[in-house]
Amino acid sequence: MTSTRDEMDSVNAYAELGSYRATAALCRTTHKTVKRVVERRRAAPDPEGGRRLPRPRNTEGVQTLIAERVQVTDGRITAKRLLPVAQAAGYSGSARSFRRAVAEAKGAWRRQRRVYRPWVPVPGEHLVIDGGTERGLHLFCAVLPWSRYRFVRVATDERRETTVRLLTECFEDVGGVPAGVLADRMACLRAGTVATGGVPHPDYGRVAAHYGVRPDVCEARDPASKGVVEALVGYAQTDLVLPAGGWESLAAANDAARAWCAEVNGRVHSEIVAIPAERVATERGVLRPLPTLRAPLRQGEARKVDKLAPLRFGAARYSGPHALVGTTVTVLAHEGAVLIQQEGREVARQRTVAPGEAALDDAPYGGPARRPARAVRPRSAAEAAFLALGPAAERFLRAAAAAGTARLDTELSAIVALEPAWGRAALLPALERAVTFHRFTASPPRISGPSWRRDRACPRPRRPAMVWPGPTCRRCPPVP
User: Fold this and answer.
1) What residues make up the domain containing 346?
2) Low-confidence ranges of the chain (pLDDT < 50)
3) What is the rounded distance in angstroms from the CA atom of residue 246 to the CA atom of residue 249?
4) Domain harbouring 213, CATH code
5) Are 332 and 462 within one domain?
6) 7, 177, 286, 312: which could join 124 in a potential S-S bond, CB 3.0 to 4.6 Å?
7) Domain for residue 376, yes or no?
8) Of the residues 365, 390, 407, which one is the last residue of a structural domain?
9) How far is residue 244's CA from residue 240's CA, in Å, rounded to a whole number?
10) What is the pLDDT of residue 100?
């Protein structure tokens, strides 16, 4: 079977030579093949004037589906994940052709995408903040876009109190307050979302009003509007946290963060070709002054100590000092522990436990916890006489009752009757042995066999097995 190229070569050669055999010798084929090709061309001329008609692609049926998915996913979906969807919609072609169609759709989408206008920051206009996590530590990052002055601190959580406290610390470090704070869509600072816009939390709003700053939130699914601070988060993760390998405490981590900020702010920034520490001095002239009175920031939760001294925090119970029963204290989590403070002074520290558990200090309760035990109350004269023997008798009575000893009241009377004959000095060790070997009857066990029969010539009378000190003759059984 000849290819299309060979056929065209044969047709062109025949048009020049005019002979089937000469054309066959030139094209290295037979004259019959040349004749068949030429006659087929003459019988069915090309209606397009010699041009080949384009063949329809097998991806034309899913072009609309591909374009929709590329637009919805902002051009980030892959052909591998989109291929099963297209096959369910009726696509039966190869994966290679589908990847080519997806690549073409992405290219067309990028050419039709909206045009971004570069953001030109204004001095003192914005402070951009965001958070990140690396190796179990939470990073609070802030940057002034005009001067590129960076602020990074380490925390153990991303709670609202922690974020607001670090934000006010950033104001103190910068030495002024910008006109607005542009934050990522941080859940700790938002109370809700209305028309894709974030509503600031009342606590965050009160702090912003006290400092005279306007809170602002980035648009949803629009990473281009917050790239400045996201670049800082990645820079801090790779250049600060990862090389350190961890710190002993949160204070050591923040000391390292302060030293790192002083280092990066003292170098020439490649974007502005200036030193951020020097440029922020110029920007500080247009920043709003810090308020004279700082707003007190509550770093924990208020809890009331009940009459049993424990208080609830994070769905768990923690014990507090008995002297503070009925008062209100501040509870906060700090470096893997729960701190209980009163008027800013630490009064107790407990280890953190899971929700539903309890962390109780033994000192306020007079020592370690004891297992609950019900007191033994005698109801008959025999029980009272038996319990008068002491703690060994009480342990014997509890063990015998737990073992389900039948006719226990009769056995107690029989044991009490042994004291006048053998004395308390021999009876109490026998009770201890009975508890050890779980033998709670006054009579010896019945064991068959001639070797266990008591010798009739034994001078001692028959005695209970639990008080036998040893064999009294060669045929008396030994005590276990």
Assistant:
1) 301-365
2) 448-457, 459-475, 479-480
3) 9
4) 3.30.420.10
5) no
6) 286
7) no
8) 365
9) 6
10) 92
3-state secondary structure 239-294: HHHHHHCCCCCHHHHHHHHHHHHHHHHCCCECCCCECHHHHHHHHCCCCECCCCCC
Same domain, 256 and 142: yes
d(CA 302, CA 328): 6
Counting the structural domains of the chain, the total is 5
If asked whether residues 200 and 316 sit together in one domain, one would say no
Q: Tell the residue number behind the tokens 């601190």, with chain if given.
A: 153
Burial of 261 (0-12, 13-18, 19+ CB in 10 A): buried
CB-based contacts of 254-257 (< 8 A; 24+ apart in sequence):
254/153, 254/154, 257/152, 257/153, 257/154
Claim to verify: residue 236 and residue 325 sit in the same structural domain: no
Give the burial class of 448: count Cβ atoms within 10 A of its Cβ; 0-12 exposed, 13-18 middle, 19 or more buried: exposed
Q: Which two tokens stand for residue 409?
A: 């009241």
Alpha helices in 138-245 (DSSP H): 160-174, 202-211, 227-236, 242-244
Residue 288 lies in a domain: no
Q: Are 194 and 84 part of one and the same domain?
A: no
3-state SS class at 334:
strand
Within a 13 Å sphere around the CA of 310, how many CA atoms are in the beta-carbon half?
14
- Tell me: do 145 and 16 sit in the same domain: no
Q: Tens of pLDDT along 305-317?
A: 777 767 777 778 7
Query: CB of 70 within 8 A of CB of 109?
Result: yes
Nearest to 442 by CA among 425, 461, 469, 462: 462
